[in-house]
Structure formats: structure tokens, C-alpha cells
């Protein structure tokens, strides 16, 4: 039986990042995933682009991942939030976050966030994982059977290899088998919506500006992407609609799909044309009633899944990593029990209340803006306009959203 300090089940962005971060700290890690890691880089598998908050970017840099991105990232330097209806001009009472609202470092405003394509993050993760061969065992494609004992967890892989770990971290996604094995209940919030995702090329440069346009049927976001030789002005579109409407839009021919995008985009960046294929994903939110069980911690989507209205899903998972890493490194340095109840309870107390607050905010935004009630529309306009006139409030909001 081989001994490791920690086993991480799931090598998605959260699990793989945590493995890199802990391996860099000198711990012995076993990382398991049912999929082969190189296949995760295939461009046809995922059309998403991630908005990485500045606090998350710093963590990725400390883990050695950010430096291995195969392509450039796109800083988000301003954000426009508007309210309206498809095919109509946005309400004049919008909200704009400019570089003046961002913290200043070395004389320059810090970007609000960074856009990177999912496949680029995957490639960087895979490269970084292979650089920790001495401290990191990767079992992929592989599955494990977990037996939780009082003082350790016994892990048997499908190949027959056996491991012993002080702690197992479940980073398996929303259907987390280890969460189910531990009997941790989940509350689900169905939205009966799907997200449509596409890359567009547009006439005018985005200049690092993101757009969040709230519409009665669901939010429409344009997120700036770095240029390519073929498409110098690119953005990602994330667009929520009711499930049936989303399926109809997804099935449109290219001309009709482009027209639907332009109805929602308006004259934000000029004429836009979709590039490549499009994707559709069901949208929902959920949260685990607790993040811990004996010798088990939940992280990322195993613990919480958010509506993408504010683009915070992955960043909340990265906050889990930051908290876990700090607690585990401290415990390791002091010779403590890495899977002990004290560490696990401290982790839950540190992250769950904040995660629940973010989830409540995202759910509230969806319910507040996802309707055409004239009274609520008036209230929304008042709120956005008031925040636009309070720079101190905007700066405090921005710093919190940046994870700083």
C-alpha cells in the first residue's frame, strides 16, 4: 500500500489546480480522474471561456499554472451593466465600472478580471501537473473505491493499486459520488433555463470591456477575448433563455442565430458574426448542506453550483482552494493531522457562509432582473443609477468581486 498525504478525486479545474498548489507545497498527492487528461484539451469538448478574478489569478500564478497558459489572456478593464428588452435600446439607467473603480498597484489600475478559454486553462493545468512528478501521482483514466477509517482513508484503484491518505477532497462536479457516499444532502434550485455559448467576431474592438445585459428571458453577456490572427476582435457570448426557447435558438441556422445575437447585443461593438460551433448547457444552482464528513472535504461544484449570471462559479471554487491550501499548509508545517476534524471544521466555517452569500446574490439577481414587471424595472433602474453615482460603493463592490 502506497502512502500519500491527500487524495483528490476529480481533475477538473478545481481539483487539478488544488493538486498543483499542494504539490508545490511539498505534500504527496494522489489525483484521480475517470477521463484521460490529454483528451480534456480537445477544443471540441468545451466552448466555455472563464472570467478569472484577480484573486484567483494570483492563486493560479502561485500554483505555477498561469505561467503555462498556451495563449494570451484578456484583461477585463471595464464592465457595463444594462437592463432592457431584445431589439430595444438599453435603459439609460445603466451601471459602468471603469478603471477608476479598480485598486491601483504600481501606479496602474488592476484589471477586474481576466478572460481565458477553457481549453487553454486545461492545457496549462496538464502541463503543470506533469511538472510535479515526484510529489504527485496521477491516476487517469481511473476510478477509486474509498473506505473511510477513523485515522485514514483506504483507496483502491480499478487497476488494483492501493493507497492510504489522511484526507480525501471531492472535486468531482455536481453529481459528486463521494458526497453521495458520505450521505451529504443537496438542495437544488432549478431555473428551467439553458445557457447558449458562442464565440463572435465583431467590427469594433472591445477595448477590454465586458457587457452584462439583463433581459426578461435571462441575462446576455459579452465577454472580451484575446485576438487571433484571423479574428482580431473576439468576444464570448453567454446567453440564458428558458429551456424550450434556448433549444429553438440553438437549432437556428447561422443567419437567424446571428440576428438573434444582434437583437440582444445592439450596437455595443458593431456587427457581430458567430465563429465556429455553438454550445448549450442546462442551468441550475445547488448547494451541499455541509462541506465535510470524517476525512472528507468537498470543493468546487461538489459543494456548490451557481447560476452563471455573475460569472462567479469557478472563482468560488478557487476560493475553496485558497482556504484549503492555507489550512493544510499550516497543519502540515505544524505536524498536525491533515484529515482531522479541527481542520475540516475550520475549512467549512471559513468558506461556506461566504459561498452561500454569493449564491443568494446570484439567485436574487436572476429573480430580480429575469422578468418584465414594470414596478421591478423601475426599482432596478433606480438601484443601478444610484450605484453609478456612488464611487465609494462601486470601489468596495469591485474589490470584493475581485477576491482581494
Task: Outline the structure in words.
The protein contains 10 helices and 23 strands. With 404 residues, it is α/β, with parallel strands linked by helices. The chain folds into 2 domains: 2-70 and 116-185 and 289-368, 3-Layer(bba) Sandwich (FAD/NAD(P)-binding domain), CATH 3.50.50; 75-114 and 192-284, D-Amino Acid Oxidase, Chain A, domain 2 (2-Layer Sandwich). The strands form 5 sheets. The chain has an 8-stranded mixed beta sheet, sandwiched between helices. It is globular and about 65 Å long.
CATH architecture of the largest domain: 3-Layer(bba) Sandwich
Head-to-tail CA distance between termini:
42 Å
State the fourth-level CATH superfamily of the largest domain: FAD/NAD(P)-binding domain
Low-confidence stretches: none
Q: How many domains would you count in the coordinates?
A: 2
**Apparent shape:** globular
State the helicity in percent bands. Answer: 25-40%
Tell me the name of the CATH class of the largest domain: Alpha Beta
Which structural class best describes the helix and strand composition? alpha/beta
Beta strand %? 25-35%
Alpha carbon gyration radius: 22 Å
What is the average of the pLDDT values? 87
Count every helix, treating DSSP H or I runs of 4 or more residues as helices: 10
What's the story with the biggest beta sheet? 8 strands, mixed
CATH topology of the largest domain: FAD/NAD(P)-binding domain
- Strand elements, count: 23
Amino acid at each position: 500500500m502506497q502512502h500519500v498525504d491527500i487524495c483528490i478525486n476529480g481533475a477538473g479545474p478545481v481539483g487539478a489546480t488544488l493538486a498543483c498548489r499542494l504539490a508545490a507545497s511539498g505534500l504527496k498527492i494522489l489525483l484521480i480522474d475517470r477521463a484521460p487528461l490529454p483528451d480534456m484539451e480537445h477544443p471540441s469538448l468545451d466552448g466555455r471561456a472563464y472570467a478569472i478574478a484577480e484573486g484567483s489569478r494570483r492563486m493560479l500564478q502561485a500554483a505555477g499554472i498561469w505561467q503555462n497558459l498556451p495563449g494570451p489572456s484578456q484583461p477585463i478593464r471595464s464592465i457595463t451593466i444594462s437592463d432592457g428588452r431584445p431589439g430595444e435600446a438599453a435603459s439609460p439607467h445603466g451601471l459602468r465600472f471603469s478603471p477608476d473603480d479598480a485598486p491601483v498597484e504600481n501606479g496602474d489600475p488592476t484589471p477586474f478580471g481576466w478572460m481565458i478559454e477553457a481549453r487553454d486553462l486545461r492545457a496549462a493545468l496538464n502541463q503543470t501537473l506533469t511538472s510535479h512528478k515526484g510529489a504527485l501521482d496521477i491516476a487517469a483514466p481511473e476510478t477509486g473505491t474509498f473506505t473511510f477509517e477513523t485515522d485514514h482513508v483506504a483507496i483502491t484503484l480499478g487497476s488494483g493499486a492501493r493507497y492510504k491518505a489522511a484526507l480525501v477532497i471531492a472535486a468531482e462536479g455536481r453529481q459528486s459520488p463521494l458526497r453521495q457516499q458520505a450521505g451529504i444532502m443537496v438542495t437544488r434550485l432549478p431555473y428551467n433555463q439553458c445557457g447558449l455559448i458562442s464565440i463572435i467576431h465583431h467590427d469594433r474592438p472591445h477595448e477590454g470591456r465586458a457587457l452584462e445585459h439583463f433581459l426578461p428571458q435571462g441575462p446576455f453577456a459579452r465577454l472580451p477575448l484575446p485576438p487571433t490572427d484571423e479574428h482580431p476582435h473576439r468576444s464570448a457570448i453567454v446567453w440564458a433563455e428558458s429551456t424550450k426557447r434556448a433549444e429553438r435558438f440553438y437549432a437556428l441556422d447561422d443567419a437567424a442565430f446571428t440576428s438573434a445575437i444582434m437583437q440582444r447585443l445592439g450596437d455595443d461593438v458593431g456587427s457581430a458574426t458567430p465563429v465556429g460551433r455553438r454550445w448549450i448547457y442546462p442551468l441550475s444552482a445547488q448547494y451541499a448542506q455541509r462541506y465535510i464528513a470524517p476525512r472528507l472535504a468537498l470543493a468546487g461544484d461538489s459543494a456548490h453550483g451557481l447560476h452563471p449570471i455573475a460569472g462567479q462559479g469557478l472563482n468560488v471554487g478557487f476560493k475553496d482552494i485558497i482556504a484549503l491550501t492555507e489550512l493544510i499548509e499550516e497543519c502540515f508545517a505544524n505536524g498536525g493531522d491533515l484529515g482531522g476534524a479541527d481542520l475540516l471544521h475550520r475549512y467549512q466555517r471559513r468558506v461556506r457562509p461566504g459561498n452561500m452569500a454569493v449564491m443568494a446574490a446570484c439567485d436574487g439577481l436572476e429573480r430580480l432582473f429575469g422578468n418584465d414587471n414594470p414596478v421591478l424595472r423601475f426599482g432596478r433602474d433606480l438601484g443601478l443609477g444610484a450605484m453609478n453615482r456612488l464611487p465609494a460603493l462601486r470601489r468596495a463592490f469591485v474589490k470584493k468581486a475581485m477576491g482581494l
